[in-house]
C-alpha cells in the first residue's frame, strides 16, 4: 500500500507531501488543486507505461506544467508584511514526483531538455531512484538513475552493477532497465505500478461506447471509458461476487435487477425496473443511472487492483445514490487501496458513515496548494 505521495513543482503543487491510507478522500473547494493531485498520481503510473514524458508534453511541457510562483514563499509574504517577493531562481528547473509504500518507494526528477533537443516540449529525466521501505535512505536504494547512467543492486548485495551509460533522457529506467536477468526487483515494482487503475473518463453521453452493443468476452477489468460495460457485468456474474452486484443494484434502485443479454457475440446490459413492462437497455438509461452501473462494474472487478483512483465519481449522480456508492467504495477498499477525489460533501459523509477514511482537505494560499490540517509526512528527495 502507498503511504505517502510527494509532488514538487507541478502546477499549484509547489511542495506537497500527503499521507495515504487504505481509503483516502481528497477534497476541497474548486481550484484548490484536487485535479492536479490526481494528475500527479496518474503521471507516476504513466512512468511504468513509458508515457510520462509524452503525457507532460501533451500538457504543454514543463513551461506549462511547472509551478508558476517563486521557489519559496516567505513568512513575511504570507503575513502580508512584504507583498513582493523576488522571482530569481536559485535552484535548477525541477518537477518531482514520488511515492513511498509499505515495502518500496520511487521518485523521479525532471528538468529542462538540452538546447539541441528537437522536441522542446519533452522534459528530460534527470534523476530516478527506487528503494525498499517508505523513506529514501542510501542503504535502501536498489535502483538509481543519474543522467544517462543506470545502476542496480540486489537486496542481498551492496555492490552496484552499471546497467547502461546511455539511457535516453526521455526514457525511464522503470521501463528500459527492468528485466528478469539484471533488474528483477525493478521489474516486479514496474508490474505493480502498471496494475494501478484510474477512472476519470467514464462516458455517459449519447454517443458513449457503453450505450452500444459490444463484444461479449471475458472482461475482469472495466475499460477506462466504460466501453465494455456489458462484458464486465457478465464477467462479475460468471466469476465475481454476484451477490454484491445484486445488492448494489437493489440498494441504489430498490426493486430493480441488472442482467446482460447476448445475440451471437454481441450484447448489452438490461435494467429491469418495477412498473415497466420491459427492461431498459443502456441506450435508454439516464446519465446518472448509466454512470452508477459503470462504477459498480469498476468497483466490483473480479481482479481488484493494488490501487484504484477515482476522480469525482459523483458526477451526474443524484444525492440519493451516494449511500450506495459509498458502500461500494468502502467494500472495495478492503481488498485494494482506494484514492477518491471528490467535492461532494454528501458522498464524503456517506463514506465516513460506512467505514474508516483518511481525508485530505486541500486549500489554496498565494497560488499554492496546501493541506494545513495534516501532520507533515516524512519525505526525502534524491539529490541531483
What are the defining features of this structure?
384 residues, 11 helices, 8-stranded antiparallel β-sheet, globular, alpha+beta, Rossmann fold
Distance between the termini: 27 Å
Strand residues, percent: 25-35%
H-E order:
EEEHHHHEEEEEEHHEEHHEEEHEHEHEE
Main sheet summary: 8 strands, antiparallel
**Number of folding domains?**
2
Question: SS-based structural class?
Answer: alpha+beta
Approximate shape: globular
| Sheet with most strands: strand arrangement | 2-1-4-5-6-7-8-9
Tell me the total number of β-strands.
18
- Low confidence ranges: none
How large is the radius of gyration? 23 Å
Helix content, binned percent: 25-40%
Specify the number of helices: 11
Mean pLDDT: 92
List the SSEs and their pairings:
Layout: E1 2-10, E2 13-19, E3 23-28, H1 34-49, H2 52-58, H3 62-65, H4 75-78, E4 95-101, E5 104-111, E6 124-132, E7 141-146, E8 149-152, E9 161-164, H5 173-176, H6 184-194, E10 197-199, E11 214-215, H7 229-239, H8 242-252, E12 257-263, E13 266-272, E14 280-281, H9 287-299, E15 307-311, H10 322-333, E16 337-341, H11 345-354, E17 358-365, E18 368-370
Parallel strand pairs: 3-16, 3-17, 10-15, 15-16
Antiparallel strand pairs: 1-2, 1-4, 4-5, 5-6, 6-7, 7-8, 8-9, 11-13, 12-13, 13-14, 17-18
Helix pairs in contact: 1-2, 1-6, 7-9, 8-10, 9-10, 10-11
Amino acid at each position: 500500500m502507498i503511504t505517502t505521495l510527494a509532488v514538487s513543482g507541478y502546477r499549484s503543487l509547489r511542495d506537497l507531501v500527503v499521507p495515504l491510507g487504505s481509503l483516502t478522500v481528497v477534497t476541497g473547494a474548486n481550484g484548490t488543486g484536487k485535479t492536479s493531485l490526481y494528475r500527479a498520481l496518474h503521471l507516476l503510473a504513466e512512468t511504468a507505461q513509458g508515457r510520462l514524458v509524452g503525457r507532460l508534453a501533451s500538457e504543454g511541457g514543463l513551461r506549462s506544467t511547472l509551478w508558476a510562483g517563486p521557489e519559496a514563499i516567505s513568512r513575511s509574504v504570507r503575513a502580508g508584511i512584504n507583498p513582493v517577493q523576488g522571482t530569481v531562481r536559485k535552484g535548477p528547473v525541477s518537477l518531482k514526483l514520488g511515492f513511498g509504500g509499505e515495502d518500496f518507494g520511487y521518485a523521479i526528477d525532471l528538468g529542462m531538455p538540452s538546447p539541441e533537443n528537437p522536441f522542446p516540449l519533452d522534459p528530460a529525466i534527470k534523476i530516478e531512484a527506487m528503494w525498499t521501505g517508505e523513506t529514501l535512505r542510501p542503504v535502501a536504494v536498489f535502483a538509481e538513475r543519474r543522467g544517462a547512467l543506470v545502476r542496480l543492486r540486489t537486496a542481498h548485495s551492496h555492490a552496484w552493477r552499471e546497467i547502461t551509460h546511455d539511457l535516453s533522457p526521455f526514457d525511464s529506467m522503470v521501463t528500459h532497465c527492468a528485466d528478469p536477468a539484471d533488474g528483477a526487483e525493478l521489474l516486479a515494482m514496474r508490474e505493480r505500478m502498471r496494475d494501478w487503475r484510474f477512472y476519470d473518463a467514464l462516458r455517459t453521453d449519447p454517443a458513449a461506447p457503453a450505450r452500444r452493443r459490444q463484444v461479449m468476452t471475458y472482461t475482469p477489468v472495466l475499460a477506462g471509458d466504460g466501453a465494455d460495460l456489458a462484458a464486465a457485468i457478465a464477467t462479475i456474474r460468471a466469476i465475481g461476487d454476484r451477490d454484491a452486484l445484486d445488492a448494489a443494484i437493489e440498494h441504489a434502485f430498490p426493486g430493480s435487477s441488472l442482467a446482460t443479454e447476448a445475440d451471437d457475440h454481441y450484447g448489452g446490459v438490461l435494467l429491469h425496473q418495477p412498473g415497466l413492462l420491459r427492461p431498459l437497455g443502456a441506450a435508454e438509461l439516464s446519465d446518472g443511472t448509466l454512470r452508477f452501473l459503470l462504477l459498480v462494474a469498476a468497483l466490483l472487478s473480479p481482479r481488484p487492483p493494488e490501487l484504484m483512483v477515482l476522480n469525482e465519481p459523483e458526477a451526474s449522480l443524484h444525492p440519493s445514490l451516494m449511500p450506495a456508492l459509498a458502500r461500494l467504495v468502502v467494500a472495495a477498499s478492503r481488498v485494494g487501496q482506494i484514492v477518491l477525489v471528490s467535492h461532494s460533501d454528501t458522498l464524503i459523509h456517506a463514506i465516513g458513515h460506512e467505514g474508516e477514511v483518511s481525508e485530505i482537505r486541500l486549500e489554496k494560499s498565494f497560488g499554492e496548494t496546501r493541506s494545513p490540517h495534516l501532520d507533515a509526512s516524512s519525505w526525502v528527495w534524491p539529490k541531483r
